[in-house]
Amino acid sequence: MSRSTLPEFLAQHHVTADLQTVILGLAEVSVTISQALAKGALAGILGAAGAENVQGEDQKKLDVIANDLIKDALAKLPAVRGVASEEETDVLPCHTDGRYLVTFDPLDGSSNIDINSMVGTIFSVLPHTGSAPVCEQDFLQPGRNQAAAGYVLYGPSVMLVLSTGNGVTMFTLDQDSNTYLLTDAEVSIPADAKEFSINMSNQRHWTAGMQSYISDLIAGKDGPRSKDFNMRWVAAMVADVHRILCRGGLFTYPWDSRKPEQAGKLRLMYEANPMGFLVEQAGGEVWTPEGKILDIQPEHIHQRVPVILGAANEVKTCVDYHK
Ligand code: F6P
Ligand code: MN
């Protein structure tokens, strides 16, 4: 069976030449990252980097390596006006006439690195509409504006999952030729859920609405939902959302009373928006308890947001518990 390669798919789907270079640049650098991950301890690249990022999180060596690789790869592309990364305090200017801005989480779920579990790279491509030189304000566009969004999941196989606004397509890396080949063109999230994904250890810190929603899921057939639900938590958003794109369900990372001033844990511009774009493109819903995430006007590149996403009916039910 002959499968489309990623470049063939982009050309067939009339993605602009500039946007193609951005997506192909990200795909190429992800192969290098996947090779570094595969070497693991043999390359001496596991463990802490000994520094904190702007979010106050301890950086892993591979967070820094992946960040540098992606930043350098994007900076070479004339189509890229500027980039913003989870691991960089400020936005970084690139080419003065580039048409696109790229935000990224170089290695999502990086606490999984040292246990040889799944991690991923998340990216969001926005049009550049401001004037030179690029500044943070240019990036502060609602997720709805994304020209493309996607992620690379470094798992038993390496997969690139992409949307340019026309559905969601999954590609798998052929490790013999180092090319991404199309493996699923019909990604769709069923409206009803049988599975949910949340870090249950935080239960006592959630809002009353979230506590009673999750209690009712756990009560299963014996509770008000009259239905059993299964639970899964990989602790890497990229892997938990990948499962939802593959077989449905609801994912949430809610607000937490331990840091009441913090909206949530996940970051709007390089986690919730790109993953949310994919989920909406696959027919799912993406909300905070107040409204749709892709409509939020960002105020800061590192802003956080509570996230409820996945199966359309289940997300609505969860939001209703907050009213
Ligand atoms: O990037 C933040 C992140 O690692 C997500 O990928 C993941 O969903 C979440 O944090 C895991 O949080 P916790 O440590 O509470 O399980
Ligand atoms: Mn992350």
TrEMBL record:
Catalytic activity: beta-D-fructose 1,6-bisphosphate + H2O = beta-D-fructose 6-phosphate + phosphate
Binding site for Mg(2+) 1: E86, D105, L107
Amino acids binding Mg(2+) 2: D105, D108, E271
Annotated positions binding substrate: D108, G109, S110, S111, N199, K265
Pathway it works in: Carbohydrate biosynthesis
Subcellular location: Cytoplasm
Start and end residues of each Fructose-1-6-bisphosphatase class 1 C-terminal domain: 189-322
InterPro entries in UniProt: FBPase_C_dom, FBPase_class-1, FBPase_N, FBPtase
Principal location class: cytoplasm
Name of one Pfam family that matches: FBPase_C
Co-factor remark: Binds 2 magnesium ions per subunit.
Keyword list, A-Z: Carbohydrate metabolism, Cytoplasm, Hydrolase, Magnesium, Metal-binding
GO molecular function terms noted in the UniProt entry: fructose 1,6-bisphosphate 1-phosphatase activity
Annotated Fructose-1-6-bisphosphatase class I N-terminal domain residues: 10-184
E.C. number: 3.1.3.11
Cofactor(s) this protein requires: Mg(2+)
Quaternary structure and partners: Homotetramer.
Homology family: Belongs to the FBPase class 1 family.
Protein name, entry field: Fructose-1,6-bisphosphatase class 1
